[in-house]
DNA sequence: AATGAATGAGCCTTCATTCAT
DNA sequence: AATGAATGAAGGCTCATTCAT
């Protein structure tokens, strides 16, 4: 029973299905049929709305990115001090929306794909730049610029590292300990402000 | 002209070819023909020696692992103090053997595969445990046990994060700055020894 | 805004679009969406008016045929002598309306289709018969019947051959030289009237 | 039971199957499965030996071309006088090898494809050039050069036209009457040598 | 009158894998 | 020891066609 105005509904459903499928498989090695099946539509329809598989995958990545961006903006909005901003960024990186097995797997898969696909790499760079600028908005006022840059890089690396290492753990992701680790890094770096680079 | 004792030669050649192929593709999405072609043999021979593709891939991973292990032992052998041990571990993580586009891509690909394949996950855990115990052999004597554990986790995450983020950078990997970042983390943690957390 | 009496307009537009699409592609291998797109309507509408794709194609062929017939009648109307009739038929075969890349491609494509589809073959036979009778109306009075038949067949073959061979030439079709070749054939046959075969 | 040295056998079988399939369908619109099926192998094998469908089709065309070339050389070898050469060329154009429903259909289909595919067009031009030079080797000595050129073009057009018009006839191709028609054209042109262009 | 929504069927192509030699 | 031959299975994608609105 075709109703009108289904396009946005289907697009959303297919992107969600893609995330679910990628999460379940743990890689981008999912079939269009699989994704379409999860979304409850035929593979042909997925092609109808997204063209090729790559396009759907990129749209999925873009969706993850925009969610991450929205979460970031929301978190930053409630943060008063620069220090608060840092914590807010760290917190949302491991929030329940982001730090979930499915989403983690999807991010990881996209990282791999980025090595091959320039389009994916471009998208991932957007994420990296955004994370960096968010972190710098907190770290900048608290220490010398070049040092802030380095700490931001360290925080970002640690976050991504914790994401990737989730693959090795059993059970549900432990966001709290991940957050504590990064916070401790930041805290120590702030405390050692007088000292070295 | 079949010669005797070719098995080890072929196995080595095929594993090297697998690393090369994975490195070039940037993912495990390589064909047996591709690998065999690089090794200069027929795909049938690859099956003859390794059974299935997954077996070859696991053997490849195991090879990477043992190389990493050997590098680690070598590095540790020359380190006198605990502090030296830490630096040695960090150094070899970014050594020219390890921190190369091809090897990085392979590691990353295996991380992804680990999410699906228990066998791969097991192998990757071996790596994680080994890295951890190596780090602990340096950090243990220098700070309280539980804190050392956490710092080791932080170092490991940072290393893996720097690996993964290589995918976003252009040009050759910059090992020096990566090492500096991790060393600085360790240094600051050691300096803040009296304090938290 | 549905208007009444749109049917003939749409049918005409779709048939023109089909010719354009076939001409552009150089074969009948065009999609309904393509044709509908050129006509500025939805593929569903094309089905609504024509049933199946084959029906639209046949209608297109019929349109070409009726155009050819009309051109022929017009040309014959102005021809006084039998000899004039022959020249008129040859001329319209290579007139600007007929001897155009698009139309040529369409004719050729239909010839191929005729091998498979009896309906198409029937239509094409109508064309052949019409061309033959037109030619005979000129050749008949000028030579013995059986010889006229053969010359008509030769002229028809030459015309179709020149059409098909257009596919091999670059640039715009050269109608003049094509006409000259056929006219020369006719002329020589008329001159050799007394002789063979 | 795989034996060695099958490649040439399979290639031949697949090309023959392609001709058969195209002949049966009357167009290039045949599937790889169909062709492979006729050849008695799997579709995968067809791809194994020919790469893509287009490559198999081109190889098929090239085969037809080389057969035509071989037939032409053979025919020309036995012709003593220029006049004999002309007749020989005409004869082989309608020989039992060439003027068969299947081969005719294949030629026609390739003509259509040539409008789209530059590679096919190139191949077809080879055929046209060869036919032209063959004809000129007979017509050249018998009349003025520019006139010979035109007669050669006329003969070629008539031959191709008779091929295409086969699609309209029922029953087996009538080679004899086709040959007679072309021969008569040549004869008349030769007889009218003194006269017009 | 017209279309967006949706799909089944089918095709090309790739690839891991097997087997006889 | 090594490979050419061969295929089954599966995936991406296209397209004519239908249907409710």
From TrEMBL, chains A, B, C, D:
This is HTH-type transcriptional regulator BetI. It comes from the Bacteria. Keywords: DNA-binding, Repressor, Transcription, Transcription regulation. The keyword Transcription regulation applies. One of its GO terms (biological process) is glycine betaine biosynthetic process from choline. Residues 31-50 bind DNA. Residues 8-68 form the HTH tetR-type domain. Pathway: Amine and polyamine biosynthesis; betaine biosynthesis via choline pathway [regulation]. The keyword Transcription applies. GO terms for molecular function: DNA-binding transcription factor activity; transcription cis-regulatory region binding.
């Amino acid at each position: 029973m075709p109703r009108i105005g289904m396009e946005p509904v289907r697009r959303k459903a297919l992107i969600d299905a893609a995330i679910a499928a990628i999460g379940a498989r743990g890689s981008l090695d999912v079939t269009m049929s699989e994704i379409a099946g999860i979304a409850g539509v035929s593979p042909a329809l997925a092609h109808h709305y997204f063209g090729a598989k790559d396009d759907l995958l990129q749209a999925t990545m873009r969706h993850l990115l925009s969610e991450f961006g929205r979460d970031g903006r929301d978190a930053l909005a409630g943060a008063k001090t620069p220090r608060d901003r840092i914590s807010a960024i760290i917190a949302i990186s491991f929030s329940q929306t982001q730090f979930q097995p499915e989403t983690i797997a999807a991010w990881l898969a996209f990282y791999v794909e980025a090595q091959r696909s320039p389009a994916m790499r471009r998208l991932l760079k957007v994420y990296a730049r955004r994370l960096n600028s968010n972190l710098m908005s907190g770290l900048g006022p608290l220490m010398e610029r070049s040092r802030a840059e380095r700490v931001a890089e360290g925080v970002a690396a640690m976050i991504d590292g914790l994401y990737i290492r989730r693959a090795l753990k059993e059970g549900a992701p432990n966001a709290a300990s991940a957050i504590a680790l990064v916070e401790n890094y930041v805290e120590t770096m702030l405390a050692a402000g007088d000292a070295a680079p």
